[in-house]
Amino acid sequence: MEVETRVPSIFLAVLLGAGALAGCSDDDRDTPASAAPAGAAADAEGVTVLRPGSPGEAAEVGPLEGAAPAEPPAWNHADLAFVQMMVPHHAQAVEMARLARTRAADPSVRRLAARIAAAQGPEILLMAAWLEEQGVEVPGRGDDPMAYDHAAHGHDGMEGMLTPDQLDELRAARGAAFDRLFLERMVDHHRGALAMAEVVAASGAAIPVAELAADVHGGQTAEIARMEELLATLG
Q1: Helix axes 207-234, 175-203, angle to 10 degrees
Q2: What is the dihedral of CA 30, 35, 39, 44, to 10 degrees?
Q3: Of 163, 158, 167, 164, which is closest to residue 97 (Cα–Cα)?
Q4: 174-196 per-position pLDDT tens digit
């Protein structure tokens, strides 16, 4: 903390002030404490310091400059870009996961897909609510968030998203072919989310966004490992 780095200088000021007072006349030493200089009372929100005066002058007490740390920003463009991009990113993952209900052959793939939808659906609502609190537009399903103000501030685009043709291919697949294609596509999709989460973790400012990014990174890292295991069993 900044205050801690200034502690030695505070002690030095006090000691110098005491020395200056010791060199004053008897009349000065007899001055009651109640006659301290104006402003000597400690600021309720700050730290006071005794500053020695020039020879023959009384010391002064005042606030420690820089004692109050600056308030960190509530959010920055990296936070908004991440959330605006992650809303449609999650929406596509949920759409992919729901296809598994009627197309997947392996029960393990269906269970994994259900967990993905159950996790990312509520996160979409959480992110949309956070954007609304900031007075920022919430991208709709299929929207390009790079067309929005904050997502276009020099940030990388969404990573891992399926193209329309890839999504159509997944919709058309059935059985074992769907299982493999779903797992391969979702692994890539999740890896894109990890990359986006790492960017905002390094450059974002909002605590709620950092927490969300950490949840995304942790949960989807575990799901990638599970999907790679399932791919290995498919042969």
Answers
A1: 150
A2: 90
A3: 167
A4: 999 999 999 999 999 999 999 99
d(Cα 57, Cα 60) in Å, to the nearest integer? 9
Output the six-digit token pair for 108: 């393990």
Determine the CATH number of domain 77-234.
1.20.1260.10
The separation between the first and the last C-alpha atoms of the chain, rounded to the nearest angstrom, is 56
For the CA atoms of 116, 120, 121, 122, what is the dihedral angle to 10 degrees?
130
Q: Residue 114: CB partners within 8 Å, gap ≥ 6?
A: 97, 100, 101
Half-sphere exposure for 72 (CA within 13 Å, toward CB): 7
50 to each of 43, 60, 64, 95, 144, how far by Cα in Å?
13, 6, 9, 66, 59
Q: What is the DSSP string of 6-54?
A: THHHHHHHHHHHHHHHHTS-HHHHT--GGGPPTT-SPPTTS-EEEE--S
Q: What are phi and psi of 67, to 5 degrees?
A: -70, -35
Six-digit token pair at 162?
């399926």
Burial of 184 (0-12, 13-18, 19+ CB in 10 A): middle
- The residue extents of the domains of the chain are 2-63, 77-234
Q: Residue 153 above 60 pLDDT?
A: no
| Tens digit of each residue's pLDDT (9 = 90 or more) over 32-63 | 444 444 444 444 445 655 566 666 666 666 66
Q: What distance separates the 2 farthest-apart alpha carbons in the chain?
A: 100
> What is the Cα–Cα distance from 223 to 26, expressed in whole angstroms?
80
Q: Please, are residues 81 and 127 in contact by the beta-carbon 8 Å criterion? A: no
